[in-house]
Every structure is written in structure tokens, then in C-alpha cells.
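User: Just a sanity check before I run the rest of the batch. Below are the C-alpha cells for the first item. I only need the designed sequence back.
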């Protein structure tokens, strides 16, 4: 039995390392720690490989986006500081106008990704496109510290875990179930932080 587990771990080491770093990434983001971004950057690089091998091309492309947004978020959290908030970017709520824009943009991203996936051998293009479009929006909202990004993550993480069951990516299933719980905890913590500063 130990040999089987060891063999499985060795053959899935990239996915396992990505999952461990992914948990650290969410922990750091819940606590609004700048280490969110370098940890997210490393996680994304590993998952580019995992999703390419699993033919989840939209999710793979999403990881490329995460690499870019991690650099942006890292810069914004360092340079977009607010002296009133101890040198950090304040947590804020999404206004109605911005929310409407984000819904439209997310819809357009979904349609674009779905169109591109027609040229691949993806067998779950609609689901892959939906979770990818929502994740793009949620990660941008995290970089800007909008509380509601956690609500999107709760939905995306739970939905994605089912998609990864279908693809037999078991460490990633566990990771995304943990992400779901952590996203809920992050939402509660950020609401408290928002209420304390406003």
C-alpha cells in the first residue's frame, strides 16, 4: 500500500506541490499578506503544466493570466498603499455600476473562451469557459481588494472541484474543496476588516 501511495505521489508531484502552494496562497490572501502574490505566481506556473497535461486549456490559459495578475497585484498592493490604513490598500465593496460592468465583461470573456475552445479537444468547454471567465474577474477584484471576489470564489471553487473529479485530478479536487471553505472564511474576515475601517 505504501508503495502505491509513494508511486502516486511521485507521478503527481507537480500537482501536489501546486496544491500545497495554492493553500498557502489563499491563506495569505485571507490575511491580506503581500506573500499572496509570489505564492500565487509559483502556484500558477505549476498548474500551467498540470492543466496542459489534462487538456483543460481554458484553465491552463487562466494560469497564464494568474501569472500576469500576480505581478500586477504584487505591485498594486506595494505601491497602491493608503497612509490612513497603515500603508495598505483598503478593503472595499463593489459598487453597482462596477458590478454591472464586471458582469458584462465576464460574459464577454466567457463567450470568447468558449469560441476559442471550439478549436481544441476539450470535452467540457462550457464549464471550463465559465469557471475561467469568473476566475479572471475574481482575481482582478482580489488585486483591487473588492470583498465580493470571495463570493465568486466560493461558487467557482465548489463548481471546479466537480469538474476536477470528472478529470480524476484528485489532489486538485481536495485543493478546491479546501479553497471553497477558505473563500468563505476569507469573506467573513474581509467583511470584519471592512467594518472596522469604515
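Assistant: Here's the designed sequence for the first item:
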Amino acid at each position: 500500500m505504501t508503495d502505491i501511495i509513494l508511486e502516486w505521489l511521485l507521478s503527481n508531484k507537480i500537482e501536489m506541490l501546486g496544491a500545497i502552494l495554492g493553500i498557502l496562497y489563499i491563506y495569505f490572501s485571507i490575511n491580506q499578506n503581500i506573500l499572496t502574490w509570489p505564492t500565487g505566481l509559483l502556484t500558477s506556473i505549476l498548474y500551467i503544466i498540470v492543466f496542459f497535461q489534462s487538456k483543460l486549456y481554458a484553465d491552463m490559459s487562466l494560469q497564464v493570466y494568474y501569472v500576469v495578475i500576480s505581478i500586477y497585484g504584487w505591485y498594486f498592493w506595494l505601491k497602491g498603499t493608503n497612509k490612513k490604513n497603515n500603508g495598505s490598500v483598503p478593503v472595499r465593496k463593489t459598487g453597482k455600476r462596477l458590478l454591472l460592468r464586471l458582469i458584462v465583461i465576464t460574459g464577454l470573456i466567457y463567450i470568447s473562451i468558449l469560441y476559442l475552445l471550439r478549436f481544441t479537444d476539450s470535452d467540457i468547454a462550457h464549464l471550463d469557459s465559465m469557471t475561467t471567465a469568473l476566475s479572471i474577474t475574481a482575481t482582478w477584484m482580489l488585486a483591487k481588494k473588492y470583498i465580493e471576489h470571495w463570493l465568486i470564489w466560493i461558487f467557482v471553487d465548489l463548481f471546479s472541484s466537480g469538474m476536477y473529479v470528472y478529470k480524476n485530478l484528485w489532489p486538485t479536487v481536495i485543493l478546491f474543496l479546501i479553497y471553497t471553505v477558505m473563500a468563505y472564511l476569507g469573506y467573513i474576515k474581509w467583511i470584519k476588516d471592512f467594518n472596522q475601517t469604515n
